[in-house]
Amino acid sequence: MENMDINNFKLDHNFKLVEASAGTGKSFTLAHIVLRNVLEKKIKPEEILLLSFTRNTCSELREKILSRFNLLKLFLQNQDETGIDKTLLEWYEIYKIKEKCSEKIIFEIDNFVNQIYKLNVTTFHAFCKNILDEFSIDIGSSQDPNIENNIDDLYQDIVNDLWIDQFLNLDPEIISLINQKKISSKYGSKINKSFFVEILKTLDQENICKIKITNRYTNIDISNYLKEFLYINWKEFFVEWNKEGEELYMQLIELGKLIKEIGGKSQVYASKPRNNKYKQITEWIEEINLRLESENSSDLLYDISKEDLLFKYFYNKNINKEIKKFDLSLDFGRFKLLQDKIYKIKEGIYTEFVRIFVQLAFIKLTNLKKSLSIFNFNDLVKTVENKYLDSDLSNDKSFSEIQNRYKCVLVDEFQDTDNIQWNIIKKFFNTKKHFLLCVGDPKQAIYKFRGGDIETYLDAKTNAIEIFSLINNYRSSKKLLNILNNLYTNGLRESKLDYKKLNSKLNRSINYEFDSNKVFEIIEFSKKEIDVEDLVTQYILDFLSINNEIDINKISILTLSNTQCSELKNKFLKLNIPCQIKNKQNIFDTEASTLIVFFLESLLNPRTLRNIRLLAVSKFIEIDLEELIDYQKSGKLEILTNQCINWSLELKEKGFLTLVNELIIKYNSASINSDSDLYSNLFQLSEIIEIELIKNDFNLNKIFKWYQNQLDDSLRICIGEDYLTKNYNLQNGINLSTIHNSKGLEYDIVLCPYLSIISNKSNKIKGPIWKSNSDRSIYINISSNYSKVENFKLTEERDLFKESERLIYVALTRSKYKLIIFNDIDNTNNILNNDLLPNLENIHLYKSSFSDKVVKNNINNVSKIFNNTQLKNNPWKINKVNKNENKKIISDGSISFSSYSSWISQDKKIDSSSDQYTDYEDKISIINNLQKINLSKSNNYSKFLSLPNPLSNFPKGAIAGTCLHKIIERFDFQKDNSDKLLDLIIEELNLFQIDSSLALNVREGIFRVINVSLGSKLLNKRLIDISSDNIMKEVKYDLSLSYDGSKITTNDISKCFLLDQEFEFGNDYSKKINNLQISNKGFHSGSIDCVIPIGNNLEDSKWWIIDWKSNFISGSENSDCFPKNYNYKNMKEEMIKHHYPLQSHLYLLALHRLLKWRLKNYQPNLHLGGYVYIFLKGLPDVKLFDNYWEKDIYPGLFISDAPINRINYLDNIF
Predict the structure, then answer these.
(1) What pTM was computed for the model?
(2) For the residues of 312-329, what is the DSSP string, one character each?
(3) How many whole angstroms separate alpha carbon 916 and alpha carbon 248?
């Protein structure tokens, strides 16, 4: 393996592999290689295929590639080396010898950028889907496949049908036998329907190993087969018992003696057994044989297979358990054949039934999916595999066409590729005609549970013609990287992976100071004395009290599970330490899901005292157990009961989301109000339940049963991205994340509290699905004691232990400046203490113990730093709110979703042909007598206002308006330079099929938007002045209607505008509202273009709504659009005409509620600013016009403070 010289390695047709350790710039490398291929080899965008692991990484790679080309173009235009990296500069010095004309290079860059939409950056599953879509006839697959990765209903139906047809028709004795059997499996302890649903789901989604299908079970009598199986194996058992049984008994007595000699005491094996166990079993065998001569074998099924003396004393399950318990080295291997026979009569019959059932279910699933044209993600790959790997392709046109389509093929995150995917890539592109390069890091192969297969990587590595490594690290400081280099001096020993020493190239210094000698800390503790969560909390408090300039948003604590994240979060919240869980988990696995159960039960059965008590002591109401007695005596429980009765009656009128909101408001729970994650999760769950209620005609009994199934992950059908927790809250803080979720991320300071619990004992594998690495097959067995299974189990446990070693590597390489490890001194037999820390013996470390970390100040006093501004960073920052896609629901009209567009569509006085009901309006207003503008006493303003706006000639209509909105949404006002904006504009224009020659005009128009002063009300700020971290774009909201059970009507809303008459749009607009025909319940949904804070700090800022309007106001349809047309009077008429006052007030209501729930000490009159409507086509040239502007009025801007009384009124009726 050689160090990669990214500018000089050959772009030839040899298969190349690049090992990229953490922080070495994998994405940077791929982007640079694309640039080299395009400019050196003249590869076209459509001839490049880049495969990555997820859609997000695909998007990031596309952006990196685009940025790389733009950076080079900027350098060539300005010849300024300030912003260009050394790698690109060195490449240009080499390349300019061949291509001396920089104009030609710029031309080629522009050509690539303009066609970047042709660049195929995609996931492997999407690549296979595209093949199926294009060549379905040639492949023989459905031309219109139903791609569905969530078919739990189908699994359930198949198992239900087979359960009725097969299981319930077995002999009663066999049914009883199976029902009574307790097993140890990852899918539960009983052989039941949910057990088989999970097996079927796992097999269907398995991507590496395959189950061998046999048809011998399809036409058998299962009862007779199982009885015959037991009879045959019984005969074989007692023959083997007569040979080896007595010797096994003597060895077990020796085991008892050995345990006694070392001072142990076994509950099973004694040195001097009271009874002769061998003789007891022999007599039992003789009794069974006599009964077999006169009785039906069915009658003896239970007696033979039950967990008796043979099972508890002689079976290797308990033998091995005792040997491990007392750490003995004894070999009972000579009794393998006897143990296999014991297994066959004790557990084998159950395994046979499971195998038969699974085979029948899988055959039925395969046939049903084929008939219904259902494909999951792995089916896409398997179909391509079957077509192109298992057949002669010498004359295959589709194969040749795909192969010839691409010349440059790059594979990202190669360590996560499985053997089937790699075989397909090799088949197509490992040729003498393709540049094939794979990039990955086997040390970060931690996704075995998702199908990642490190063996595929290692196998490919042996076949690579050239292997390179990246040795420069751009993440960690020199001091910290020196520690990491020493930690991994011996590589990853368990995984047998080498580690190459890295050089730190981090050229940014931390912007706050702490003791630089303590870049690596080991916190030693004893779990017997203190819980690690308490210790972490104390460490954080102490660290922040000393280093009070630390930005807590750049601290991360990495865990092994979501549960550990939740435990830490609860500790932090009690001390007012801001924190956020970064992991996305299924919403039904959260604490909020349990709270919802209490509320649902109280609505279903409000007169059941148990339900009301549970609701009362839950976080919804929060009374403690002592108060509960007083609650009952005082009659408050009865009041709560009556309230729940009323709520249950009002459910259909108000909707579930409204009821939950009322419950939270009524009892003002401190636990919910202080826990933004819990509040968000309650909101999300309520939305999901609301939708299910509408679908099921508000049948609460049915919904409760459905909800209970969702709480059981074996029965859950609500899975996938739509049911992952969403981040509605705006609060930042210390990041809590699992190590898996942290991969690819970096933080200034990282704490790892749980690494010392990772050992070879921490991965315990359970069946009934076992995988063979040798032949990639799946083996079904309910037992982990069968000799064949033991080998599978040991192999898989070793593989998981190796992956745990790689998980530690991922955790240790997330930090930029400081790394803190917590080490349990009572648990040192692990990877951390055996393989890593000994490598640091000769290096000075800061090693602290628990006693060193006792908090210096009273915890309550220290925690107060988060309630004021002692930290220079804000106690919390505002994040962009995640988009919450509105779901379209068809209901009976009792509850529905409404929007601003649907409401104003009722105004019969608005011309329906104006296309105004689209999401992004681009309305045209022809004004015959344009109002004369009077902005200043200066005579010079008119010539500037008569110059057309750059967007004047931009197309009109809904598509054009949507395009402009999309550009502004994606554009980072502060961070993106003009070239990046131009690239973004071209990309969107191409996407919307709008002439890209307008790009420069669009860029100039957007520059006017971000550079225009927003006036004195907004402290003369410009959008470009606002930090990107504090700007929220596309803020979606749902306002629940019918708070008191009645519909929201036109008359209700019109009264709002009778208040605050000193503000815009009073009595006259109140009358115009009556043109609408509003009468709704349910939800009002919308999306705010932009929200910004104006003030010196976030706590004291006023929050303003910004809305982009692309309305065309002109004297005639064919004339230019002049800023002079956008004076106050014309804009106000435009606002009224299209009901923008209604829209703006709804936006202010949504913002009011958002701030009320999320901003500490929120007061509307202090924090709710108002709205700014920016008419994009009406802004003058800022540089020219600002010199003559004297008044606080600006063409193209319509600004108003928030009318607080109106908003409070709307808050009461919505």
Answers:
(1) 0.66
(2) IIISHHHHHHHHHHTT--
(3) 87
